[in-house]
Amino acid sequence: MSKLAEGEQLFASFRASAEKGDIQKAKSLLTQLKILMTTFDSLPPMGAEGPNAARERTLARDVMEVAVFLSAREGDSDAFQRHMAQLKPLCMDFVSQLPPSPNQSAVLGLNLLFLLVENRLAEFHSELELMGDAERASECVMFPVRLEQFLMVGSYDQVLAARDHVPHEYYKYFLESLLGTVRDGIAECSEAAYSELSIAEAQKMLRMDQRSELEAFVADKYPEWELTADKIIFKAPEACKKSAEIPSMRLIAECLSYATELERIV
User: Fold this and answer.
1) Residue 104 and residue 70 in contact, taking contact as beta carbons nearer than 8 Å
2) For residue 116, pLDDT beyond 60
3) Where is the CSN8/PSMD8/EIF3K domain (predicted)?
């Protein structure tokens, strides 16, 4: 059996394991595939042409696309970045030679979502600019673009609602990290704005269906909050305490007195 045929068989097993969620088996097969692909002269950095060059490059691209999805599923940011870096040359340098990939828009959108979660907005917009009109119009790409717009205008409720409308199953792994950050922001704003909040309203704001979910969130992130049968009582933020200690009226009176004295001197 040729190395290419062996690689195609391994890839079929690798993809099946990744789709089933058998992470350890998939990672083992990925390692074998990476070793095997080092024998392909058609891949970067050599890029040699040959009778099997197109098949080898297509196989390598397909392997790295599934590797990107696997890294997202595992929540491994470092592996995700490595696999994206290995995938890009295959997509950019040989785009005219390879058949279209059904995973292309999903991979591009997933990378945008990752950059958004990491708050790497300059890279986010740079990647978006490199895409063609058809790619930018795909739902997989529009999803992180809309999320970025929601975040820019402070529409946190729409960001939280987005978890019910993910265009691809692998998006939810990075999205959970973003939702956690957004919930923290909503919680901190609520703490600063209110002295207390009903349990029902807090669940609505944080998009939590069960009280137990809210209790776990508070216990983990804000143990100083007091939960009663029907409401949350917030502990005043330290900044508010300090501002309350400032003798505002006395300072205003002194400033007015100084202004009056200066006016008399002039």
Assistant:
1) no
2) yes
3) 103-238
